[in-house]
Write a structure and sequence with these properties.
Number of domains of chain A: 1
CATH architecture of chain A: 6 Propeller
Radius of gyration of chain B: 18 Å
Shape of chain A: globular
CATH architecture of chain B: 6 Propeller
Mean pLDDT of chain A: 95
Largest sheet of chain B: 5 strands, antiparallel
Oligomer: heterodimer
Structural class of chain A: mainly beta
Structural class of chain B: mainly beta
Distance between the termini of chain A: 36 Å
Mean pLDDT of chain B: 96
Number of strands of chain A: 27
Amino acid sequence: MLEIDMTSKGMDRLITHDAPLDMLVNGLLFGEGPLWSRADNCFYFVDILGDTIWKWTPGVGQQSVIQPSTKANGLTFDREGRLLVAGWGSRSIWCVEHDGSIVTLAAAHQGKKLNSPNDIVVASNGMIYFTDSPGALYNVGMAGEDVQQYLDFQGVFSISPDGKLDVVVEDTAYPNGLAFSPDEKLLYVNDSRLYHIRVFEVQAGGSLKPRGIFHELEGGEEGIADGMKVDSEGNVYTSGPGGIHVLDPSGKRLGRIRIPGHVTNMGWGDADWRSLYITTRSSVYRTRVQVPGVPVHAGGRA
Amino acid sequence: MKWVFERVAGPYKGALGGLAWDGSGMLFSAIDEGRILRHDPVNGKVAEFRRYTNRTNGLAIGGDGTLYGCQQASRRIVAFTRDGSMLPMEHLLDGKYHNQPNNLCVDAKGSIWFTDPHSELRSSGPQVFPPLEHASVLRLDKEAQRRLWDLRRVTYDTMAPRALAVTADGRTLYVAETDNRPGGLRELRAYVLADGEVNGACSVMHIFGEDHRGVHRGIEGMCLDAAGNLFACAGWSRSGPGPMIYVFAPGGEILGSHRVPGDLPMNCALGDPLLDSLYVTTGTGELYRVRNCGFNGLKA
């Protein structure tokens, strides 16, 4: 049985109290990077401190995909189904080609190394967006080879399909999770330090126009604005104090799904996209929702 | 001999910490600002050397010119290399992350000795790794064949080591055990070293007491001169004799005590072209200098 805080009546249309909460994986040091692969019918995730990209397959269980992972963080697939990685320790965005080789897509802005890419999404037109908070440079146990911060901002970047890196948001304090609205006209960006979600209009050409603060997180329990996903009706699911906070498209909180431990991120999955796979620092959980999530396009080595 | 303290920089926001003479300028940590600054004695100007240092405190320069620092908030020693990068020396002690290093020194062999006290300040990121059960002097040795660093524990009888110094002959390790809470131990200790290992019990060279106003703040930072005399930063205006630089002869005799302007002396180092000036940082954010202090630093 799930423990659900109902703030609004709209919440019971999204998730029911008898929804399961299955623990699929336990014993991680810092789980993150949740990603369902439609092609492989499996769930990818990372253990940042454990330095591994893992996958979990129904009926099979947990298998290592890449180890060491140079402290990989957020994962997604590009339009061709290649695994895209927010390289937290490597300070780069890298991609796993279908033949298994690894290609770096971006590592420096105007000659200066990136901070430490945290999470990553791809639009239908192939435009990549990623957050560049500096946590890997400072956090105990997350260091790569060089921990000097060179950029004087912690922002959001885009990489165009032809490989051009641009700053799209410069004034975030600690940008973390990010997710599109179902029509991809809006991009939501979490700020872990400021405990809020900002919303931007995606302009033609890929730049972002600020539309202000979408939601201020509430609650004194453990948990921050970290990972975030959007369902097919535009409701926003974000990690926050005490578990997963569910917000309607206007930014009003509908309720909260209480999760044991410290939620780091979540991703939609299974064939109907009605499963919510949840990473916490130590574990992977799965629950079921009523309204399907926005599918992750392509995915896997199909 | 009366020392004249001149303020050469500051006040900065929050405490200043470690110092290191780089041959032509004095590097010093602005701990709370997350910066390392450099004072040039020729023109008296201060320039930024590094930023985003995440509460780096103690500084020391190795024989090859590499600058090392105690990055307290990240619980590691880091190397600031000439190309501008910062290399984490995030080595584990028996598989565990150590505490928040405070001060360090590099010996003639290139080994890095550092104090590793517990801290009330939170380290960066998720609190996944608990502090060590002990607070000790630790040492990084570069293993010649593999060129990798090994981390080992040096002291087994410390609870709050904050400052240290190793004599040029490698035979004595001075450690300041400093717990400024009521009832805490505050003393200067000398350990005899044999082949880099502590040999026998330490000698206590000085004890800091308390008076009707409270405990006397113990040693926060120290350095040696070429003759083996030890300079120690201790005291505060709140109680006792006040903020002070003590000069100890190798046997423990006090050769001088000098009242520091400002409060909370943090660290000291000899600098300037003749290595005859003592630079002192304070917890109130100032960098002071005493010219012609009557002692000379060891030439690199």
